[in-house]
Design a protein that fits this description.
This protein is of the alpha+beta class. It has one domain: Beta Polymerase, domain 2. It is about 35% helix and about 25% strand. Strand 4 and strand 5 form a beta hairpin. The chain starts with a helix and ends in a 20-residue tail after the last helix. The model has no long low-confidence stretch (mean pLDDT about 90).
């Protein structure tokens, strides 16, 4: 069974918030066939710890305001190297570039379908 409509909505909103904070390589994977605990992963990266935390804060705010969604689990925020936000339907990974390169989640989940996400809008904060 593919990712739910709600999971896609949450992923899209989270990706938009990440783009607004200049996240890089934002990708989404439908992991519903491989994992029973969630429908999809969103993976994004940033070049420094401060930006990782800013992206995480923007995603949390967007999902809280627009969907009344709060993560059931939040890990790694203090270090700002790899933050995991678990919303049950989706799991969001915001990683420092070095962790993204080392752990290569997209390689681990390469057999899963990629979920199309909106591109940053030219002229918006995310495209500048």
């Amino acid at each position: 069974m593919p990712a739910s409509e709600r999971a896609i909505e949450l992923l899209t909103a989270a990706a938009e918030a990440a783009h607004d904070k200049k996240a890089e390589n934002v990708l989404a994977f439908d992991v519903s066939e491989q994992l029973a605990i969630t429908d999809a992963f969103l993976v994004a990266s940033a070049s420094n710890d401060r930006q990782v935390r800013a992206i995480v804060d923007a995603i949390e705010e967007k999902l809280r305001v627009d969907f009344d969604a709060k993560p059931v689990r939040r890990e790694g925020a203090r270090e700002g190297r790899w933050v995991l936000l678990d919303y049950l339907e989706i799991v969001i990974h915001v990683q420092h570039d070095e962790e993204r390169s080392f752990y290569s989640l997209e390689r681990l989940w390469r057999d899963c379908p990629v979920i199309p996400l909106p591109s940053p809008v030219p002229g918006s904060a995310s495209a500048e």
